[in-house]
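Our preliminary data section would be incomplete without showing what the modeling component actually yields. Below, a chain of 186 amino acids is followed by its predicted structure, encoded as C-alpha cells that our downstream tools consume directly.
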Amino acid sequence: MRQKATAGATGRSPLLIFLAVFLFATPAVGEMVVQACFSPAGKCSSLIIREIQQAKKELLVAVYAFTSDELAAAVVQAKKRGLAVQVVIDRDFDAGNERSKGKFLEAERVPVRRIAAIKSNLAVKEAGLMHQKFAILDRSMVLTGSYNWTHAAERLNDENLLFFRDAGPLAEEYRRIFWQLWERKN
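Predicted structure:
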C-alpha cells in the first residue's frame, strides 16, 4: 500500500514540477523585468533603438549629452510614426558641443528643452549640470544608467544602462521627474 501511494505521488510529480516551474520561474504578467547593458562592448545603442522602434505612444528622453546620430535618427523616426516625443538636454553641453543633436532634433520638429541644474543657495554663482540620463517609453519602460546618448558612451567609455520593462510605477516616477525638468525655467 505504501508503494502505491509513492507510485501515485511519483505519477503526479512531473505535473507538480511543471506547475512549480511555470508558476515560480516565469515572471507573472505585469511583473517588472530588468536587463543590464554595459558598454563599450554591449551595443547599448542597438538595444535603445530596438525599444524606440517598438514604442507605440510616447518617448520622453532626459540626457546630459546627446551626440549619437543613430539614436537621434531613431528619436526622429518615432516622432514621424506619431509618438509624442520630447527631449531634455543640458543647456551648457548643447551650447558648447557642435555635435550635440539639440538643433537637429528641433529641425525635425522634436520638442527640445535645454536646461541647467537648479542653482544652489550657496555662494557659488554657477549652476550645476542637468546630468540625468533616462528615457521613458509608453509609460511602462524606463532606461537609465550612466550611459549618455553619445558616440563615446557607445564605443569608448565604460558605461551601464538598465532597461526596466513592465515598470509602470517606476515609469510614472520618472515621468514626474521628466515633467519637473521640462517645466523648469532657467
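Helices lie at 2-25, 44-54, 69-80, 91-96, 102-107, 151-155, 168-183. The CA atoms of residues 91 and 114 lie 4 Å apart. Preliminary results of this kind motivate Aim 1 of the renewal.
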